[in-house]
Amino acid sequence: MKIMGKIIGICISEKRGTQKHEVPEINVVKDWGLENDAHGGKWHRQVSLLSYDKIEEFRKRGADVALGAFGENIIVEGIDFRALPVGTRYKVGDVVLEMTQIGKECHSHCEIYKKVGDCIMPREGVFAEVIEEGHIKVGDEMEVILPPADRPFTAAVITLSDKGFAGQREDKSGPKIVEMITEAGYEVKETILIPDSKPGLKNQLIRLADQRQVNVIFTTGGTGFSERDITPEATTEVCDKMAMGIANAILYYSLQITPRAMLSRAVSGIRKKTLIVNLPGSPKAVAEALEFILPSLGHGLGILRGTEGECARS
Prior knowledge:
Distance between the termini: 38 Å
Number of domains: 2
Strand content: 25-35%
Number of strands: 17
CATH topology of the largest domain: Molybdenum Cofactor Biosythetic Enzyme, Chain A
Shape: elongated
Radius of gyration: 22 Å
Largest sheet: 7 strands, mixed, barrel
CATH architecture of the largest domain: 3-Layer(aba) Sandwich
Number of helices: 9
Order of helices and strands: EEEEEHEEEHHEEEEHHEHEHEHEEH
Helix content: 25-40%
Strand order of the largest sheet: 1-6-5-9-8-7-11
């Protein structure tokens, strides 16, 4: 059964920091966003979408809000964006958008929040990239295209290194992970280099799992005995359940190469439908760990996202 919606409003702002205003129609530019909108660009949040039904619910609480007041680009009636997975596509004529993120972190409360004490965009709004460009107008129908079951697994890579973040050391482990998982067919959505900070790592893990919904996050660094090594603790604190078989398998394999592998405190776990795997901090150890786990990892990720079934050995 097709899921369809109708465009109720299109909003843009020519300058960042100014409220969006309605336009009756607009060109949608590939790899950019809406023409003349200040929030377009070469990033994953080119277009923001919000359900008109959610705005109406908000208005019923006594809030007098105009379209565009939440910072949304396209307002659609009949589609609950929040209920659809990242990777869903939206087709309007020739235009194709692909959802890249659900919700966003609010760093500074908007005027609506200050007046009403709430804002729906951080939890109900979604963001998308422009896959195919064209022209849209108010009243156009939007078709929902769910992601195929056999789509590539998505991944993010986080390197933790104080010296790397300060520019005092080149990160070689992160690029090695990207190289190997790309060759294995994974689609790398983000690569991040951050200092060894528990709050910073937790924020990134939560964002990538909850908002970007990547299938797997690989971390590198911060698993040793140093006072600043906090990766296992941060990972454990954000996970709903642990998947220590992966960490134990890496440890078992690494011990056959070097006895110093016993000094690793790496863990692995699951947050919602995202697997988080701590990898070592050196490129050589990263390569050895991935060579061992990648052949079996895909089956587990398929089970986690619901595109593969459990199988028992006979």
